[in-house]
Design a protein that fits this description.
mainly alpha, 57% helix, 2 strands, two-stranded antiparallel sheet, single chain
Length: 187
């Protein structure tokens, strides 16, 4: 064993704690070769598959001034061909939505705005009504025909408006999450 292999050896097991002891330079050279072959295979697959190419790009600049100039200028005479915006955080990007065309994205935004209007109208109006008659006396004043039923069934201890509001807010939060996920263009 020469001095190079005795100094630069590693174990190939988990975290280098066990496994066969091999020459580190040879091992990492072969790992780089394997990764290079995988990269070429993936590159060929992407170049041949038309669905793998997305109509979106993330561009980085060397200076903030260059990024600001690019973000504020129109890149083409047709404004729907190239759209420039400031880049979102990587965690804010919903990667599955990157392939959505601009026209479909505009239609989705419109549909989400309409759905949100109806959501607010059909959820917030009942909540406001329940809140306005927040106690049993208010309910009995607003609906005198329910007075005998409330007294017979003794529902006064069960009819708390926050139970209705809590159920409404739970449904509302899940629905808004679905709306946001479906309407977001990048995140």
């Amino acid at each position: 064993m020469d001095s190079r292999t005795s100094i630069f050896t590693i174990q190939t097991g988990f975290c280098g704690l066990w496994g066969a002891r091999v020459d580190a330079i040879d091992y990492y050279t072969s790992e780089i070769q394997k990764l290079s072959e995988q990269e070429l295979a993936e590159r060929e697959r992407v170049e041949c598959d038309p669905k793998a190419v997305l109509p979106a790009a993330f561009v980085s600049f060397r200076s903030r001034w260059g990024a600001a100039v690019c973000a504020q200028t129109q890149q083409s005479s047709d404004p729907t061909i190239w759209l420039t915006e400031w880049a979102p955080e990587p965690t804010d990007v919903y990667w599955a939505n990157l392939a959505i065309p601009y026209v479909e994205l505009s239609i989705r935004r419109l549909l989400m705005a309409v759905a949100f209007f109806f959501l607010v109208f059909f959820f917030m109006v009942p909540i406001a009504f329940v809140q306005s008659v927040a106690n049993i006396d208010g309910i009995q004043r607003a609906f005198p025909f329910l007075k005998s039923m409330i007294q017979k069934l003794m529902l006064s201890h069960l009819m708390h408006p926050w139970i209705v509001l809590d159920a409404d807010y739970t449904c509302l939060s899940h629905f808004v999450f679905v709306l946001k996920r479906g309407s977001s263009e990048l995140g």
